[in-house]
Specification:
394 residues, alpha/beta, 12 helices, 31% helix
Length: 394
C-alpha cells in the first residue's frame, strides 16, 4: 500500500503531530489558552519548528475564525480554512488541508480547536441552548420545540421502527464506550456502567436517557499535517492520509430523505474509494458519538455491517478495544470528552492508535502487531454533514 492523496497528486500528506490540551474539568483557562496549549503540544510531538506552519484551520471561536486564533498563536498563515459544519468540521478541514498541501498551496497546516463548554456553564457565562437559532429554514421547526437532541431521538426511533433495533442494543454502545474509557487516564468518566443503568437513567429525549448522550467537557486538540518532504525531520512516525470524503445532507428534517441513513454513507464511500481500501481492512474506527444512535447508524453507513444490522452488530462487544472492530478506543464523546465540535479528537486518537502510543488502551491486531489502518468519521449538526478520513501507517 502506498500513501495517497485525494487529488491524485504525487505529493503525499502525513499527520506528524497530534495532541490534546488539558481536558475534562478545566476551570482556569480560556478557549484561546486551550488552543495554544494543544498547538504547542502537537508541534512538540512533531519535532518541527513553528516556522514551517504556513496554513491554519480553525472554527468555533472568535468573530473572524481562524484569523483571531492565528493571531493569538503568533502565526501569519498564507492558507486558511474556517469551514464550520458542526462536529464533522475537522474531518472536512483535514480533507481540504490534504488537497492544499498536495497541490502545493501550503506545506504544513495546523488544525486546532479549544472550548470551555463545560466551564462556561458552571460559571454562568452562558446557558444551555435548545436550538441553534430561529432564522432561515430553522424557523419552521424551532417554534415547536424541536431541539437538537430531539432530532437525533426521532431518527433513532425511526431506525427502531424500521429494523427492530432495541434500546438494549443502543445502550450497549454506551457501555462499551465506558469500558474503553476505563484504560484512558484522560477520560472524564471511567467507572463501568451496565445496560440496565443506561436504561434506568433520567429521560432526556425519548428514547435517550442521560447515558445515551455525550458528556459536556472542556478541552482542545491539534493536528499538524505536512507534505512528505518534511517527514524525515519529524520526531514521530508519520501517519499518512490515504483518502477522505465529505457530504452534506439536509438542515430541515422534512428535507431528509431517510432518517435511517446518515451522510456518512456518502463521505465514507468516497474516503474508502480514494484510499483504495475496504471497510473490512480497517483495524480501528473513531466515530462521532454525540448519541449512541450516531455510532450505530454510522457503522452501518460506513459499510461495517448491512443497513438495519447495526443493533446486532454492536451488541456483541465488537466495539471494545479487544473486539472485532475497536471503536472510540479512548471512550469517545460518551465517556472521554466532548467539548463541542469533537471531530478533531477522533483524528488524534486514530493517529495515536496507529503509532502505538495509546498506552493501556492500545489496540493490537490478532497477531499482536499494531493496527495498520484507521478511519475517523465526524458528523455535524443533526446528521446534516459528514467528513470521513482514512489513515494508515504505510
Amino acid at each position: 500500500m502506498s500513501p495517497a492523496t485525494r487529488s491524485g497528486s504525487a505529493r503525499k500528506v502525513a499527520v506528524v503531530g497530534v495532541a490534546l490540551s488539558d481536558c475534562g474539568r478545566v476551570d482556569d483557562a480560556t478557549p484561546y489558552a486551550l488552543h495554544a496549549q494543544a498547538a504547542r503540544r502537537a508541534l512538540a510531538d512533531s519535532g518541527l519548528s513553528r516556522d514551517v506552519i504556513d496554513g491554519i484551520a480553525s472554527a468555533g471561536l472568535g468573530t473572524l475564525a481562524p484569523v483571531e486564533v492565528a493571531e493569538y498563536l503568533g502565526l501569519r498563515p498564507r492558507w486558511v480554512d474556517s469551514t464550520s459544519v458542526g462536529g464533522a468540521t475537522w474531518e472536512v478541514m483535514a480533507a481540504h488541508a490534504t488537497d492544499a498541501i498536495a497541490a502545493g498551496h501550503a506545506n504544513a497546516v495546523l488544525l486546532v480547536y479549544g472550548s470551555t463548554a463545560r466551564a462556561d456553564i458552571k460559571a454562568k457565562r452562558r446557558t444551555s441552548n435548545l436550538s441553534f437559532g430561529a432564522r432561515g429554514p430553522l424557523q419552521f421547526e424551532v417554534p415547536y420545540g424541536h431541539s437538537l437532541i430531539a432530532k437525533y431521538a426521532m431518527a433513532a426511533r425511526r431506525h427502531m421502527h424500521e429494523y427492530g433495533t432495541t434500546l438494549e442494543q443502543l445502550a450497549s454502545v454506551a457501555v462499551q464506550a465506558r469500558a474503553n474509557a476505563a484504560t484512558n487516564p484522560d477520560a472524564m468518566f471511567r467507572a463501568p456502567i451496565t445496560v440496565d443503568e443506561v436504561l434506568e437513567g433520567p429521560m432526556i429525549a425519548d428514547p435517550f436517557t442521560k447515558l445515551h448522550c455525550c458528556i459536556r467537557s472542556d478541552g482542545g486538540a491539534a493536528v499538524l499535517l505536512v507534505a512528505e518532504e518534511y517527514v524525515a525531520d519529524c520526531a514521530s512516525e508519520p501517519v499518512w492520509v490515504l483518502g477522505a470524503g465529505e457530504h452534506v445532507s439536509h438542515t430541515t428534517m422534512s428535507e431528509w430523505d431517510d432518517f435511517t441513513v446518515s451522510p456518512a454513507a456518502v463521505s465514507g464511500r468516497l474516503a474508502f474509494e480514494r484510499a483504495g481500501v475496504t471497510p473490512d481492512e480497517i483495524d480501528v474506527a473513531e466515530i462521532y458519538d454525540a448519541f449512541t444512535y450516531m455510532t450505530l447508524v454510522t457503522l452501518e453507513d460506513l459499510g461495517f455491517c448491512e443497513k438495519g444490522e447495526g443493533g446486532p452488530f454492536v451488541e456483541k462487544g465488537r466495539l471494545l478495544r479487544d473486539g472485532g472492530l475497536p471503536t472510540n478506543t479512548d471512550g469517545g464523546g460518551l465517556s472521554a470528552q466532548h467539548p463541542g465540535m469533537r471531530g478533531l479528537f477522533l483524528l488524534v486518537e486514530a493517529v495515536r492508535q496507529l503509532r502505538g502510543q495509546a498506552g493501556d488502551g492500545q489496540v493490537r491486531r490478532p497477531d499482536g502487531t499494531l493496527p495498520e489502518l484507521a478511519v475517523a468519521s465526524g458528523t455535524g449538526g443533526w446528521f446534516c454533514s459528514s467528513g470521513t478520513v482514512v489513515l494508515g501507517r504505510c
